[in-house]
């Protein structure tokens, strides 16, 4: 598959992230290569996975 992308101006004023998972990628802008890797020292008999943990409530500065 060939893909032609023409980038225009990008302006980000505000970002709100309420939750994240154990494996997350958040990008703004351009990238040529994304390489995923993982290292774990947990024994194979241990349960894999963890519950999602919400971020603390947003506080507004005045």
From TrEMBL:
Q: Where is the composition biased (Pro residues)?
A: 53-62
Ranges where the record places region Disordered: 38-62
Please report the organism this UniProt entry assigns to the protein: Aneurinibacillus aneurinilyticus
Task: Please state what the protein is called.
Answer: Spore gernimation protein GerPD
